[in-house]
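Appendix C reproduces, verbatim, an entry submitted by the partner laboratory led by Prof. M.T., so that reviewers can inspect both the input and the predicted structure.
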Amino acid sequence: MAQLWGGRFTKETDQLVYNFNASISFDRKFYRQDIQGSIAHVSMLGRQGILTQEEMQAITKCLQEICRDVESGKLEITEEYEDIHSFVEANLIDRLGDVGKKLHTGRSRNDQVALDMRLYTRQELLVTNGLLKELLETILSIMEKHVDTIMPGFTHLQKAQPVTLAHHMGAYFEMFKRDRQRMYDIYQRMNYCPLGSGALAGTTYPLDREYTAELLDFYGPTLNSMDGVSDRDYLIEFLSALSTVMMHLSRFSEEIIIWNSNEYQFVEIDDAYSTGSSIMPQKKNPDIAELVRGKTGRVYGALMSLLTTMKGIPLAYNKDMQEDKELSFDAFDTVKGCLALFNGMLATMKFNTKRMYDSSNKGFTNATDAADYLVNHGVPFRDAHGIVGRLVLACIEKNIAIDDMPLEELQAISPVFEADIYEAISMETCVNKRLTVGAPGKEAMERVIAAAHEYLSKDWQDAIR
């Protein structure tokens, strides 16, 4: 058992206790961050004269070698070590002897693990942001191609008013854009360095925390050492943002599942993103969309787990906080996988534009426009609403659309109707006369698409690095 704290104890830890306490099985994921933080720490110790330049250079070189050996497979991270910190330090001491023992000067595992988790989460946030941007680019591409593709808009899963596929996709563009904005906000709050906080009360060594923060691309050091080692707000915020991403993906997946059904047939999912049935040869199942929908609960679970873990912890560090890792790592990987797969499915999906148009035309989605026509001819809206309600009922009885009813029958319901009613309630007119900001009309959508291109041209990830 490779331990960093054995001096106080007179006998070895029980094996079951050791196994229960150990974190090497999951915190091995951030060996790079642990070594990166150690190199920054030792560079600062050398700059401050706490270590000699020779010691600093020897430790730095050896840490870099350990990192290369792990990445090449020459050095294996085994479970004989309690955690990733003891693995790195033990191997350093094996290679350098007493000089390696100076690495931990002015540092605690508390601020070390706080740093590692923050560095790892920051990296995952940037990767997630990049995947969100790729998804937004795919959505925007669909919007550009389908400004004229008319489809029914729904409320309560019932056909409501005609929109366009571009407009429908634009709603998801706004959702995922907000998700990216949340990533930016979290980055701004989390990008401060806890290293140098010590166990909870700093250290008597003359550390230059500003320099360490600068080496690790942080904005600066955390300003309270107790908070520095016990803060997991940034991780809770990130898991909350990831839960929102998954909620948006799940809503989108639900629609694709519905659109893919035999009853709708709005889309055809590419064979590469579908599966068949083991017994029914005709089936083509939307498994990726269903799995994304299902995995949403998994990410929610990570958020609720960490919130529950943190709710009763007094200052400063407590071992409970080790529970921040496993479910978080799983949530990070789950969201990245879902974003990548969903984007691939969406990019290869085919849209049945005729089916969408026909569905819109046969679903009385122009009923509101028929009422507006009457209002524009002097009929009070409440009366117009009742007239069109009777008109829809008559159409249902005849199994026809409003557009298919002869003018004399329309006028029998209301003499206000004239021959221009058919143009007024055509699907194209219903959509394209809606030109207010955010509406589905072609001119309005083209302005939105231009704004979306401008937004995507400004990559905050490049600006902050």
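Residues 109-145 form the longest helix (37 residues). Additional entries are available on request from the coordinating office.
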